[in-house]
Specification:
Elements (H helix, E strand, L loop, with lengths): L19 H5 L20 E3 L30 H7 L11 E12 L4 E11 L8 E7 H14 L12 E3 L3 H24 L8 H8 L2 H9 L4 H17 L6 H49 L6 H65 L5 H78 L1
Antiparallel strand pairs: 1-5, 2-3, 3-4
Helix pairs in contact: 7-9, 8-9, 9-10
Length: about 450
């Protein structure tokens, strides 16, 4: 979306936030101590069945949204307080806040799985209360994503983290895996909450408010297996036929998605490889410093110099560790999230094409009078409306997503650049200080020799 954004208009509580900036707001509590290279880089990966929730793991791909501070001018009413909270990047007032925390393991005779606590605070009138607390497992998030895609086939649904298992590493990565997934699920829900349309989806409201048994009952009210199979068969048939005359604007969109997918996947792979190499470099540095200390014990004339080098290496090692942590928390999750977004976009385009293909087939049948003419005309009229709605929804969401993507990517790489500058300046200062100390020491020794 090019050009300047119009000034925000005042909005009453309960209306959608709808600002593009909200989706780009990042944050969330960082994972203490999770500085190691992602385990997936060197491990064998297998797909999991849906019920094996306890063993699911994925690449780090989430940077979370933090609650911003309250406005300085704050009414005393709790609902008014919620309405006064503003995000730095979001000019509109927010009225829905979601937190995912407190992961908990559950062990049954059949399976072991993890649930996450979800706390929702809102001032919207359609909610029965201002605060809700429920627990959800990964399967529930998958159900929500499916329902959103079903209700809004051409809106860009935020991606969920992948579902993988790494052989032989369940215990090793367990704590880090749970925390990483928690962040991803937190971001998923807040992306939906900040979407001007998805945020008012009824299934989303049920997901946030219903207790476990209520949610289970609600899930059973959906289409049956045979109905879902029929939808799948029709979708496959439509994709096989293909779209004969995709509008030019959607052809441009399709080409952009293909190019974007190739580039972002390549950047993701290279970034992960760089992080892995940085981890190996860091591990070597940690061993490099102590060797100089041991060496100094047998070199009386080089004690100060060797200890000085060891001190510099130790300081640079800590700076490297800090930079790696910033990389794993800021850049890698953003890049990988947009890898997942590229896959989502391809799915959205396919669903749009399926709707148009269905219309094209009806028009073709009418042309050759392959069925009842009056019935076909009625179906064509409905499908024309459906195609128009689908196209308009995608065009509007596309511009919103594209602006958010550009803001997120720009911010991530700007932060990385600043982190690199600080890192190299810090290391340079460390070694310059060492050289100065050695020069001063040399001058002192020369002065003593002359005297």
């Amino acid at each position: 979306m090019e050009g300047e954004r119009p000034a925000p208009r005042p909005r009453s509580a309960g209306l959608p936030a709808g600002g593009a900036g909200a989706e780009s707001a990042g944050g969330g509590a960082p994972l203490p101590g999770s500085r190691g290279a992602p385990a997936l880089l060197q491990a064998e990966v297998l797909d999991l069945d849906e019920d094996e929730d306890d063993l699911e793991v994925f690449s780090k791909d989430a940077s979370l949204m933090d609650m911003n501070s309250f406005s300085p001018v704050m009414p005393t009413s709790p609902l008014s307080m919620i309405n006064q909270i503003k995000f730095e990047d979001e000019p509109d007032l927010k009225d829905l806040f979601i937190t995912v925390d407190e992961p908990e393991s559950h062990v049954t005779t059949i399976e072991t799985f993890i649930t996450y606590r979800i706390i929702t605070k809102t001032s919207r009138g359609e909610f029965d209360s201002s605060e809700f607390e429920v627990r959800r497992r990964y399967q529930d998030f998958l159900w929500l994503k499916g329902k959103l895609e079903e209700a809004h086939p051409t809106l860009i649904i935020p991606p969920l983290p992948e579902k993988f298992i790494v052989k032989g590493m369940v215990e090793r990565f367990n704590d880090e895996f749970i925390e990483t997934r928690r962040k991803a699920l937190h971001k998923f829900l807040n992306r939906i909450a900040d979407h001007p349309t998805l945020t008012f989806n009824e299934d989303f409201k049920v997901f946030l408010t219903a207790q476990a048994w209520e949610l289970s009952s609600h899930k059973k009210q959906g289409p049956g297996l045979l109905s879902r199979m029929g939808q799948t068969v029709r979708a496959v048939a439509s994709s096989m036929r293909g779209v004969k005359n995709r509008p030019e604007e959607f052809m441009d969109m399709h080409n952009f998605i293909e190019t974007f997918s190739q580039k972002i996947n390549l950047i993701d792979k290279i970034s992960q490889r760089i992080y892995k190499e940085e981890k190996e470099y860091f591990d070597e540095m940690k061993e490099y410093g102590p060797i100089h200390i041991l060496w100094s014990a047998s070199e009386e004339d080089l004690v100060d110099t060797l200890k000085g080098v060891a001190g510099c290496i130790d300081k640079c090692s800590k700076a490297t560790e800090k930079r790696m942590y910033g990389l794993s928390e800021a850049l890698l999750p953003v890049v990988h999230e947009y890898v997942l977004y590229s896959e989502m976009l391809m799915g959205v385009m396919k669903r749009r094409d399926q709707i148009q293909t269905e219309l094209d087939s009806k028009v073709e049948a009418l042309t050759y009078k392959k069925a009842d003419t009056d019935l076909l005309k009625e179906e064509i009229g409905k499908l024309e409306d459906k195609v128009e709605c689908a196209n308009n929804a995608l065009k509007a969401d596309w511009e919103r997503w594209k602006e958010n993507m550009q803001n997120d990517i720009k911010s991530a790489f700007t932060d990385m650049a600043e982190e690199n500058i600080n890192y190299y300046e810090q290391c340079l200062a460390i070694w310059e200080s060492f050289l100065t100390s050695q020069t001063d020491l040399h001058l002192e020794e020369a002065s003593e020799d002359k005297s």
